[in-house]
Amino acid sequence: GLLLLAAALGATAAARCPAPCVCDNLRAHVLCLNGSLTAIPDTIPELTRKLDLRGNSFMVIPAGAFLATPYLTHLDLQHCKVEKLEEGAFRGLGRLVYLNLASNGIALLYQESLDGLFSLQQLILEGNRIEEIQPGAFGHLASLTVLDLRANALVYLPDMIFQGLQVLRWLRLSHNALHVLGTEAFAALPALRRLSLDHNELQALPGEALARLDGATRLDLGHNPITYVAEEALAMASLRHLFLDHASLQDVAPDAFARSPQLRILDLRENQLQGLPPLAGAGGLVRVSLDGNPLLCSCLLRPFHKWLARARVQAEGACAAPPALRGRSLNSLKPPEMRCSRLWPPPSPTTPPEQPSSAGSRQCPRGCVCSPDFHHGSCENRDLREIPRDFPEDTRLLDLRRNPFRTVPPDAFPGLKELVSLHLQRCSIRELQPGALRGLDSLVYLYLTNNHLSTLAAAAFEGAPQLAYLDLDHNAFTHVPVGTFRLLPNLISLHLQHNTIRELVGGDLAGARGLRWLYLAGNAIRRIAPAALAPTKMLEKLQLEGNHLSEVPTAALRGLPALSELKLSRNPIKHMGDGVFLPVASSLQHLYLDNMGLEWISPHAFTGLGPKIRSLYLESNKMSNIPDMSNFTGLEILNLQDVPFHCDCQLLPLHRWINKLNICVGATCGSPAEAQGLKVKLSTTFQTCPGWGQGEAGETNANKTKAASKPSKKKRLGKSPAKGFSKSRA
């Protein structure tokens, strides 16, 4: 009876398996990989437990998108071009324990975006463009143990931002641009054991914020521009492993770690240390790593050397000077060898005096709401004609959206020296007057989207030197506001999407030396001058999709040694010549060339590109062949859907290469007639080609043998269906 019931359930599930998905009825798994889905299928079997939707194009996850599948425990939405999670998007998924949203375009986490996920244990948000997290965004995730926010665009963490994560054990914040942390940013994380803050922009050890982490045992702070660790800078009672490698350290105070008594491993590799003092108070240290530092083994290093022996601490590192000791390991030195024949002036860094914090005695303006716990103020949608004043002086986030201000006058925000985030979206603003932001010494985020700005005076940004994120999407700019960025030395991210900019010329971005992300999608750009991007030598992401470019702006890409992502989707580029990506070939990892109407790509168009390329999007174009990509050995995503390949003998190399790949590419034949609609990988038209039997038969037999002995392993978007999968027919 049970067998009959199981068979009946399996038959029902198979009947409902949506195209073009694959359903494993025995395991209750559904895979819809690397397809052309633009909405969550509503015919997924109700009893599905694991749903894999990687590589589709959803853009928005609407409220209640998964109400039909309440038994889900695992949901994978990687590489789905998701830009927005609507409030209530995951309601009904009370059993979900794993959610992967990596490699999408999410910019903001709303308060209710993750509502209903009270069983969730792992949340992966790596590789999005999250700039800001609203208070309470994680408040419903009481079971979460791992939160991965790596490789986003975070600059600032406000107080109590992780409130509600009572059992979180690992918080991953690597590869952001963090340089401002609220003193209570980590206050609500009692179970945290590991914190990853490496590869950020922290210029000083955030000791006050870290002191809230009583139970953390590992702290990663490497690859931050920290120059000095001050007295008692780190007070973490349980810390055992501290990584400060590849920073800019020039000195460490003797009692820097005196309030971290459990510290065992201290990694200081690849810094600028010429020596260290005896580390008083760090009595539990077992190993100090100093490899890659310019250690000067003079008599001034003797106290540290003596302390190492007395405390029985293992030291890793070698002398850089004097010449007689160069290359000698610290452990091999004897005190008489460390002479003072050369002068070593010990550094005498001075720590900046602490500024007294002001709690602010001013009351909240009439009609507005102020939250003393979060230091937030809001006057959203109050039909205000003038910007209100007298917010508490410790306000850090100010939300003034949807008020018809029309203009922002000089000194509009007096006394708000601690303000970090300012929201002025949909305020009918036509002008930012000179001095409008004066006094906003700590401002990091400025949102001016959906206004009527057509020009900006550089003087408007006077007095806001920390501004890192400037969002000017959906305004009326016809050109990049020249000279605006000279007063913004810390600008990292610039949004100018969905304006009517027609071209980029030399000087447009003058002063934007630290710019990393430039968003210009949805404009009318026809030309980019060769010198237009020259000031932005640190640029990592350039998004130009949905413009009017008729060719790849090769000349403008010269001098961008860090560019890793280039989006040219939805530009009318019909032909692609030789070596068009050569200027960025050594750094480029993600290339978007989809939906362009491409008719021809030169065999040498991808010259210089190779193993670094991780994703390549070529879907929805018109070419019938593509260049040799056999050296693209690092590919994780290759999308070739809706390309009318002509499956004749000239395409045989592509057929062979696709057969060797461990990813799904979606390539189908557009011609000849007998192959139309067939997968390039499976088409039989190649069997009549000269040399067909030389490689394919042996390779096919080998693959069959390998498949019979063990299941195939596929990268990310290419997991092959396990035994028991039934493929639906469109």
From TrEMBL:
Keywords: Disulfide bond, Extracellular matrix, Glycoprotein, Leucine-rich repeat, Repeat, Secreted, Signal
GO CC annotation: plasma membrane
Pfam family, one: LRRCT
Domain LRRNT: start-end pairs: 16-50, 363-397
Sequence ranges of Pro residues compositional bias: 344-355
SMART domains for this protein: LRR_BAC, LRR_TYP, LRRCT, LRRNT
Subcellular location: Secreted, Extracellular space, Extracellular matrix
Family, as annotated: Belongs to the small leucine-rich proteoglycan (SLRP) family. SLRP class IV subfamily.
UniProt biased composition (Low complexity): 700-710
Protein name: Chondroadherin-like protein
Subunit-structure text: Associates with collagen and binds to collagen fibrils.
Stretches the record annotates as Disordered: 325-362, 692-730
Family matches, as InterPro entries: Cys-rich_flank_reg_C, Leu-rich_rpt, Leu-rich_rpt_typical-subtyp, LRR_dom_sf, LRR_TM_domain-containing, LRRNT
Domain LRRCT intervals: 293-341, 644-690
Function: Potential negative modulator of chondrocyte differentiation. Inhibits collagen fibrillogenesis in vitro. May influence chondrocyte's differentiation by acting on its cellular collagenous microenvironment.
